[in-house]
Amino acid sequence: NVYSQPDTEVPDEPFANDFTNESSPKIEDDDTRSPTSPQPRRRIVSTSSKEQCYDTADADTPKPIKLDSAAQAYIDKQRKLQEDLTDEMVGLARQLKETSQTISQSVQSTEKILDSTEEAIEQSLASTGHTTTRATKVYSQSSKTSCFQWLLIFAMTCVFIMVVLLIRVT
């Protein structure tokens, strides 16, 4: 591919020294990957073993340099990749917000259900307590009634025996 873009002037930055013959970077790339895939992107691996030091005075004074079409294409590709990643992050943030709102609504509905269940249980306990009190009253009245009934039966038996004895004696 031959690019018909004119050479662009950019200020001198620390990466400008990376394009010399002595320490040119090697770019590892697998062209089969799509730019939006979750796999790792391109890496720049320097072939020189020594560290490059930059003077802060040199970095403060911009010196315009001309980039060839390959460097400009590389920068454009990296910008496009950054834009794609930014768009992907915005989409993920939107999904996260929607998911958190859905979970919040679910928690609120569950809380309402738990509140209504708690009220139903309290009403059930109150009703059970009232029923237990009534059952206790009925039982105590029935035991009193049964004692009274037993006393009446005993008294009637005694009266019957006395009547039988009175009839035999006379």
Automatic annotation (TrEMBL):
<keyword id="KW-1133">Transmembrane helix</keyword>
<keyword id="KW-0653">Protein transport</keyword>
<feature type="transmembrane region" description="Helical">
    <location>
        <begin position="148"/>
        <end position="167"/>
    </location>
</feature>
<comment type="similarity">
    <text>Belongs to the USE1 family.</text>
</comment>
<keyword id="KW-0813">Transport</keyword>
<keyword id="KW-0472">Membrane</keyword>
<dbReference type="InterPro" id="IPR019150">
    <property type="entry name" value="Vesicle_transport_protein_Use1"/>
</dbReference>
<protein>
    <submittedName>
        <fullName>Uncharacterized protein LOC104784090</fullName>
    </submittedName>
</protein>
<keyword id="KW-0812">Transmembrane</keyword>
<keyword id="KW-0256">Endoplasmic reticulum</keyword>
<dbReference type="Pfam" id="PF09753">
    <property type="entry name" value="Use1"/>
</dbReference>
<feature type="region of interest" description="Disordered">
    <location>
        <begin position="1"/>
        <end position="63"/>
    </location>
</feature>
<keyword id="KW-0931">ER-Golgi transport</keyword>
